[in-house]
């Protein structure tokens, strides 16, 4: 809509007919793109909203003739303790692995690498990005192998005389959180590295001439200047982390019990193991809403900044 | 993103297929067959590749189009039923889990085959239990069984020798099984005496190879076909939970961490049994699929190291042994444009020769009497006779669409028992409450 509105303002003084033709000329090339977006993006979301109000299923009577059931799926969801637990786990997982882990870790890495020797940057960057380019499935299996009972981590602990543990069993949420931090930090690092290279050295020098400590320079000069990058980064990694499925599915399957069953895993179980597509769609809508809430919080927090 | 995008994809596919509904470009000259092809499982693909030229030669003017779906069972089923929602994409013939016959018949995805079967001489060769597996609650038959699997005990003869147990072990009661496990525990430290699946980690294996193999040996069942009700709680159910508690709380089974690992069933077949770290495994007939040359964990010595024994009933009550079965059917789609050609394809694919071909390729247990008598069926797998004989006592799971949810609750209940979070009795009562919620209070009965 923005793209369509802008040119119109610049041509207000032209005669109406010509203006119309001109606008049509600008809009026309966009039509295929809008069409595709509507078909493959808006359409499915609308269908998902519709499905969440039906009893549509993969098999059984609901497969051939789904009925509108009003708010039944949502009522069922909000009275289901498994859903409440799953929502809570999702929020903890997002805050732990995205907002804190990936975001802070990525910023720290970017700051540490800023201004270092080219070779150091290449080596460290290469290793960190290596974790990121691995397919999620491979990363999941690696972490499963690393943390399992006879895995590398326990072998290392035993070698230095410590007791190993069943990490995936005793602390599944921590395990998947760490794995997600390991995998996703590279993205934040890349975003912040790019942002930091745009911070003018003169400002930092001036601040340090004025006697600002390293921390004060970071707090009052660097961070305000990279605010936009931070906002983009937080939104992106939050939405990505909200939807993490493969990593958790491979490492713990949502278990033991439901101790690491975040919303995507819960949704998978309801939609594809129990065949309640309608209920799964309702969960998807709630997942969308959770993402929207996080985004709003970020937008507000960033607007107030400095 | 994965799952959300999967849902979105679902939506896209449904939207796309729905918009194509009017077209109906599917013609009656092309017969489409959809089946699963995944990992080690390429038997169906080989079968249909083999019969494609034969079918096209026997039926001039017809084309056979193969649609192999490369996906695990859950995803295969999702894809198949999405295809079935539109006449344009619905396959004429499909590889269908026996388990979904009722709900897919209810969804009107399947075509009843009763009239066709009357004039098919081969039908008399199929064993009754398998015939029943293709029959829905409405009394119609919706598919021809492509073979089955059975369940029982695998045991390591080398460990048995060390523990002073017989090489030809045939337990008669649950206590015989526990006694052997105890003897192994005391004489051969360092091995897991007995594995019985439990908990949510291994999913359906926990319900079917684990809990139900116990429950169906007590005289009680999960579902009563006469009263058409789910049965919970029951005396047998309590006994089955008690058995699990005994195994896991007295160190006769794997550790909780092992049992609840989502990869535990792969580890059992791939590592614990081949490496001699597990003495007795309550498991399935298909395990050698991983051990044969070319399998995921080739282990040529498996047939000399491992023995097989039927899982006994609780106190040795008749018929003395218990087995559960799953299996697949060839079904004709309700929306096919050419039912007679689709039926011809099913007949061809499931005749004696092709059934045998499929059983061997897919490590299936035969459900055709004439194939069992064929020496080619038994060669190559010394345990095939044993697993095939279990067909005479085997039972199928209650094939209703609430079963997956009930099974999930069963897994949660068994997990509570083996981790000690609940006593067997309270786990059973919790489970019964969940079943009432899922199936409806009037669809559940208690039995003591």
TrEMBL record, chain A:
Its main location: membrane. The chain crosses the membrane at residues 27-53, 87-112, 119-146, 166-182, 234-254, 274-299. Coiled coil: none annotated. It is found in: Cell membrane. It is a multi-pass membrane protein. Residues 83-298 form the ABC transmembrane type-1 domain. The keyword Disulfide bond does not apply. It comes from the Bacteria. InterPro entries: MetI-like, MetI-like_sf. Keywords: Cell membrane, Membrane, Transmembrane, Transmembrane helix, Transport. Pfam families: BPD_transp_1 (PF00528). The keyword Transport applies. PANTHER family: BLR7065 PROTEIN (PTHR43005), SPERMIDINE_PUTRESCINE TRANSPORT SYSTEM PERMEASE PROTEIN (PTHR43005:SF1). Belongs to the binding-protein-dependent transport system permease family. This is Sugar ABC transporter permease. It comes from Actinoallomurus spadix. The lineage of its organism: Bacteria, Bacillati, Actinomycetota, Actinomycetes, Streptosporangiales.
């Amino acid at each position: 809509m923005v793209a369509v509105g802008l040119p119109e303002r610049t041509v207000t003084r032209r005669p109406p007919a010509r203006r119309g033709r001109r606008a049509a000329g600008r809009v026309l090339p966009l039509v295929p793109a809008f069409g595709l977006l509507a078909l493959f993006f808006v359409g499915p979301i609308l269908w998902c909203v519709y499905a969440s109000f039906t009893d549509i299923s993969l098999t059984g009577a609901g497969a051939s003739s789904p009925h509108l059931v009003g708010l039944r799926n949502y009522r069922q969801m909000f009275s289901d303790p498994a859903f409440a637990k799953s929502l809570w786990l999702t929020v903890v997982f997002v805050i732990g692995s995205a907002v804190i882990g990936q975001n802070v870790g990525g910023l720290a890495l970017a700051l540490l690498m800023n201004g270092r020797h080219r070779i150091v940057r290449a080596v460290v960057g290469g290793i960190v990005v290596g974790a990121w380019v691995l397919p999620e499935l491979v990363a999941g299996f690696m972490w499963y192998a690393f943390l399992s009972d006879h895995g590398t981590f326990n072998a290392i602990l035993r070698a230095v005389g410590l007791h190993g543990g069943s990490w995936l069993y005793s602390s599944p949420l921590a395990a998947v959180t760490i794995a997600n931090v390991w995998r996703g930090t590279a993205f934040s690092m890349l975003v912040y590295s790019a942002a930091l290279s745009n911070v003018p050295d003169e400002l930092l020098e001036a601040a340090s001439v004025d006697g600002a400590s390293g921390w004060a320079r970071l707090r009052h000069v660097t961070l305000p200047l990279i605010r936009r990058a931070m906002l983009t980064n937080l939104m992106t990694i939050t939405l990505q982390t909200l939807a993490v499925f493969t990593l958790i599915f491979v490492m713990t399957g949502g278990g033991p019990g439901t101790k690491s069953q975040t919303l995507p895993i819960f949704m998978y179980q309801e939609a594809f193991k129990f065949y309640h597509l309608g209920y799964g769609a309702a969960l998807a809508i709630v997942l969308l809403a959770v993402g929207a809430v996080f985004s709003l919080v970020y937008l507000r927090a960033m607007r107030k900044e400095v | 993103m994965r799952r959300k995008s999967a849902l979105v994809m679902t939506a896209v596919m449904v939207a796309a297929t729905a918009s194509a509904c009017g077209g109906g470009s599917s013609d009656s000259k092309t017969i489409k067959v959809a089946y699963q092809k995944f990992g080690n499982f390429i038997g169906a693909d080989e079968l249909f590749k083999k019969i494609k030229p034969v079918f096209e030669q026997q039926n001039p003017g017809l084309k056979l189009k193969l649609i192999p779906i490369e996906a695990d069972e859950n995803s295969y089923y999702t894809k198949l039923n999405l295809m079935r929602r539109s006449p344009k994409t619905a396959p004429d013939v499909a590889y269908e889990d026996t388990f979904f016959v009722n709900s897919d018949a209810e969804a009107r995805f399947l075509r009843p085959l009763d009239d066709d079967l009357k004039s098919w001489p081969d039908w008399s060769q199929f064993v009754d239990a398998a015939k029943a597996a293709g029959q829905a609650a409405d009394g119609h038959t919706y598919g021809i069984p492509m073979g089955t699997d059975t369940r029982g005990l695998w045991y390591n003869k080398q460990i048995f020798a060390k523990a002073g147990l017989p090489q030809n072990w045939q337990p008669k009661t649950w206590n015989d099984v526990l006694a052997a496990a105890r003897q192994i525990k005391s004489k051969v430290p360092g091995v897991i005496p007995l594995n019985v699946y439990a908990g949510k980690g291994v999913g359906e294996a926990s319900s079917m190879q684990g809990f139900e193999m116990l429950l169906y040996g007590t005289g009680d069942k999960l579902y009563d076909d006469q009263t058409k009700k789910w049965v919970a709680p029951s005396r047998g159910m309590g006994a089955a939970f008690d058995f699990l508690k005994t195994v896991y709380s007295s160190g006769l089974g794997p550790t909780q961490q092992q049992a609840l690992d989502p990869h535990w069933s792969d580890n059992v077949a791939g590592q614990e049994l081949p490496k001699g770290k597990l003495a007795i495994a309550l498991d399935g007939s298909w395990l050698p699929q991983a051990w044969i040359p070319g399998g995921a964990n080739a282990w040529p010595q498996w047939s000399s190291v491992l023995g097989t024994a039927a899982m006994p009933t609780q106190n040795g009550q008749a018929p003395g042994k218990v087995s559960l079965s799953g299996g697949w059917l060839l079904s004709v789609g309700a929306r096919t444009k050419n039912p007679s050609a689709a039926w011809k394809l099913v007949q061809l694919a499931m005749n004696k020769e092709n059934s045998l071909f499929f059983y061997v390729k897919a490590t299936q247990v035969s459900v055709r009497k004439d194939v069992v008598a064929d020496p080619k069926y038994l060669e190559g797998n010394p345990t095939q006779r044993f697993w095939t004989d279990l067909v005479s006592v085997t039972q199928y799971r209650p094939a209703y669409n609430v079963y997956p949810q009930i099974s999930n609750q069963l897994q949660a209940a068994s997990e509570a028992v083996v981790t000690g979070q609940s006593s067997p009795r309270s786990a059973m009562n919790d489970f019964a409450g969940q079943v009432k919620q899922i199936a409806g209070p009037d669809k559940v009965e208690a039995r003591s």
